[in-house]
Design brief:
- The chain has seven helices and no strands.
- By secondary structure, the chain is mainly alpha-helical.
- The protein has a domain of 59 residues.
- Helix 1 packs antiparallel against helix 2, helix 1 runs antiparallel to helix 5 and helix 2 packs across helix 3.
- The longest helix has 12 residues.
């Protein structure tokens, strides 16, 4: 899990044009963690540390709705399969 401080360093690194490997070294993380977080939160051009941190926090909140409850289409498929269809 990345902290807001990690995300701030990452944001500054992106603004300076650093590569993901270089940013990863700064925050002592794997480059793939840096890449995924940047991609998940707007990409190089739109990444903002506070927004990314708030979004990540919202994604960690519990309780979450089940996949069947979130997707009516999936719910219909499951219902059909449970009824033997």
């Amino acid at each position: 899990m990345l902290s807001l401080a990690d995300r701030e360093k990452k944001s500054r690194g992106l603004a300076e044009g650093l590569r993901y490997k270089e940013i990863a070294r700064l925050i002592d993380r794997n480059p793939s963690v840096v890449y995924r977080d940047v991609a998940r939160h707007g990409g190089r051009a739109q990444y903002r540390a506070v927004t990314a941190d708030e979004s990540a926090e919202a994604g960690r909140r519990r309780p979450k709705a089940n996949a069947v409850d979130r997707s009516p289409r999936l719910g219909a498929v499951v219902k059909e399969l449970l009824m033997g269809g």
